[in-house]
Design brief:
Length: 408
């Protein structure tokens, strides 16, 4: 199709819509024409095929706001003789398909379209952009065709899969290897992903030669579309696999062993690269995302990478001092409590917390004073005697405030 053909064609008439039709009306008109004129519905009807191509060409321009604006501008300038060399009469284009300038010099349509779009000499939205993206969406020419062929027939990455895992508290802190049972798309076990019945194999599509797309030329332009024979896959299966119906993919229940790293938190989403659904036509597998749920611990708490532990001690242990043996998630440690330790004091045991990435947290042990709830007569007498001998006010600031009549 020549430049002159493009400018002089009336795409609005081809679709049977008014020039001010909105996008919905244009889409509705094209769908009706495509349904009636499609070559599959009119085999051997050259006239219907020509009208189908004309409608598709028109829709390719009018359905795109940018292309439609440039087309309307081109029609305004050239389509009805609105542009004349030197501003005068004379009808249309010279034989070469381009108008001459006012001084008889060759006229550059790219400059004109650039100026019409407000781009000055930069040619923003110019004729090259209009024609280059007209029938294939940008990057026209051989390079654009190759990229579309690769997208249609090249390897396809597998789907990402998400599952859940419930871990015990210590498993989340220390890390664990768990089996995960899940249902997801996978390579057909019968045909091993080929889509062909066992004993047969797919063969290269004879129509597109494995490209997945077909091209046809009309003048200066090439039209590309998914190959109807292989539906864009690039290969044809003559005898499909009965299990997957030729798709090469089935929904499967599978069990995989996954290493959960140490230090994961409740609700954390872990990405395991390449553990998702297998790819098509030799493409890479997708990723597996595991949402972790962590059960609570009756003994330990967690604060970031540190573990917390509350340990009650007796009044005598607090007053006289003691050595405690406390548990950790990977054994026990000895902790020295000095004499005169007050309740609520926290001791840090380094390196016995969460084994996080690049850092290991600590164990924070907080002691509290355990007060007996019942005392027999002898015990009560002993406590009273001790209280009488201790002449130390345990709350001096409170006592001072009371003596001052309250307040701060």
């Amino acid at each position: 199709m020549s430049t002159r053909d493009f400018i002089e064609k009336d795409y609005y008439a081809a679709l049977g819509v008014a020039k001010d039709a909105d996008a919905a009306a244009i889409k509705k008109a094209y769908r009706a024409l495509a349904r009636d004129l499609h070559p599959d519905k009119n085999p051997g009807n050259a006239q219907a095929e020509a009208k189908f191509k004309e409608a598709s060409e028109a829709y390719g321009v009018l359905s795109d706001a940018t292309k439609r604006k440039e087309y309307d501008e081109a029609r305004r300038l050239f389509g009805s003789g609105g542009f004349r060399p030197g501003g005068g009469g004379g009808g249309g284009f010279p034989p070469g398909g381009f108008p001459a300038g006012s001084a008889g010099q060759p006229f550059d349509l790219g400059d004109l379209f650039g100026a019409a779009s407000g781009g000055g000499g930069a040619r923003a939205g110019g004729l090259g952009d209009l024609f280059g993206g007209l029938f294939g969406g940008g990057g026209g020419g051989a390079t654009g065709t190759r990229s579309r062929q690769q997208a249609a027939s090249g390897p396809a990455r597998g789907q990402d899969v998400e599952t859940e895992a419930t871990l015990a508290f210590d498993e989340a802190v220390l890390g664990v290897t768990v089996p995960l049972r899940m249902q997801s798309p996978g390579s057909c076990p019968t045909c091993h992903g080929s889509g062909a019945k066992p004993g047969t194999a797919p063969h290269t599509c004879p129509v597109c030669n494995g490209a997945g797309v077909t091209s046809r030329s009309q003048g200066a332009f090439a039209f590309s579309e998914p190959c109807r024979e292989c539906r864009g896959s690039g290969s044809v299966v003559d005898d499909p696999c009965a299990t997957c119906k030729g798709s090469g993919i089935t929904d499967q229940v599978r069990t995989i062993t996954v290493r959960i790293p140490a230090g994961v938190k409740d609700g954390q989403r872990i990405r395991l690269a390449g553990k998702g659904a297998p790819g098509r036509r030799g493409g890479p597998a997708g990723d597996l995302f595991v949402v972790v749920h962590v059960t609570g611990s009756e003994l330990f708490g967690r604060s970031g990478d540190d573990l917390t532990l509350d340990v009650p001690i007796s009044f005598a242990e607090a007053a006289l001092g003691t050595t405690l043996t406390v548990p950790t998630l990977d054994g026990t440690v000895s902790l020295k409590v000095p004499a005169g330790t007050a309740g609520g004091r926290t001791f840090r045991v380094r390196g016995r917390g969460v084994h996080g990435k690049g850092r290991t947290g600590d164990l924070l042990v907080t002691v509290s004073i355990a007060v007996p709830t019942t005392l027999d007569a002898d015990a009560r007498a002993a406590v009273e005697a001790l209280a009488a001998r201790i002449d130390e006010d345990p709350r001096p600031q409170v006592t001072a405030a009371v003596r001052a009549g309250g307040g701060v």
